[in-house]
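[agent] plan:
  1. take the single chain provided in the ticket
  2. run structure prediction with default settings
  3. attach structure tokens to the ticket
  4. add a short note for the reviewer (M.T.)
[agent] executing step 1
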Amino acid sequence: MDAAEKKRKMIIGGILAATLVAAALVEVDDEPELHVPETLQSGRATQDRAKRTESNAAAQLDVSKLGQRKFSPLAGELFMSTNWTPKRVVIDDPEEQAAKIAQAAKTMVPPAPTAPPLQFKYAGKAIADNETWVFLSQSGENLITKIGGKINDTYRLDSINDNAITMTYLPLNIKQTLTINNQIAGTF
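[agent] step 2 finished; step 3 output follows
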């Protein structure tokens, strides 16, 4: 802290201390009374005093005489809190709770893993030296493989006939079939 900041804090602290001392020394009265001899009081002063006593009595209202407010049912609850978390169901019996959890675990069996759909398009085949080569395309990439060969270390080509190609999805060892449409495939 630099000197100016210290000085400022000292002044503020001094003012605070002086305010606290002044507040402690002042006697707090709700209504200070003035002692005026009755000979000096006029009729107006008596009326003012009577009004003050009436206002003190008015401060103590009978609440039961006040009317109840009526709200429109369309407005709903004005100060209702909104909580989006679902209410928790409390189960007193721990054995019953354990049984419900076990039952829920049995009924919620995760689905068996499946192979993704084949993303290949058949482009054609060629037979050379008693080996069948298959031409496929995937996302604009041309692939060539033979029966028993692997494609991207994910698929293995098992067999080919005039209507379909059978492949195995290697991570799950699931067989899939790619149908060949003879009217489109191979006619360039």
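[agent] step 4 note for reviewer: Residues 85 and 91 are 18 Å apart (CA to CA).
[agent] ticket updated
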